[in-house]
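Lab notebook, bench 4. Still working through the backlog of constructs that have no structural model yet. Next entry is a single chain of 258 residues. Request: give me the structure tokens for it.
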Amino acid sequence: MQGTGIIAALFAALAMVAIVALRYLATSGLFAWLGTRRFPGLHRGLGPQIRREIGWSLASAVIYGLPAGIVAWGWQNRGWTRIYDDAAAYPLWWMPVSFLLCLFLHDTWFYWTHRWMHAPRVFRAIHAVHHDSRPPTAWAAMSFHPGEAMTGAFVIPALVYILPLHSGVVMALLLVMTLMGVSNHMGWEMFPRWLVHGRAGRWLITATHHQLHHDRYQCNYGLYFRFWDRLCGTDKGLGVFPRTEGAGLANPASTGSA
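Model written out:
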């Protein structure tokens, strides 16, 4: 790249950092507000923790935003990626298939790197930052040590170089990644009981499943699906939220133990 191209790529990267940060603040803020509306006092006494979560998350926004911004600039200006806009460029069935495939690949990467980060030395050096959120809140979705943030920041940017993906699929992936990251950490279950405890819930991860990971640490490592947890024997079922279990909503106070 020539000088002007480097400057343009840098500006695109910084703009993406701002977008990722604002997306985090808006999404986590919305779910945090919904939680306090549903459960008054949900965040009582958690002010210092939440401020710490926001600080780490904004640092993670930089790590996520820089490569994403450069990839977006390369797509628009250099044709570097395999992202396409013309829905007729590939069979229409490829759009949902590519979407599910990317979710599976992302989930696979997340599961195995997540298990690696629970090795004692790696946990103390990196992953303990995320588990300092006890109980986790909606603000903890991106509360990562920079080393952990880097393990996740390059997944979607890498996939757009490997697979032909419609731009709408890429946007859908980013939306699901954001919503799942926030909703799985917010300390209450927004999905109805029939889904969480039904057939779909046997394979999909929601807050009720992920809460148990934050309570017991050595289980329930997945991001979207319970496939790898079930296959590898690390699926320990659903967390227990007694106060509102009958309504299908999770109580922020789980009875699990670390």
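Notes after review: The beta strands are 83-84, 165-166. Residues 242-258 have pLDDT under 50 and may be disordered. Flag for follow-up if needed.
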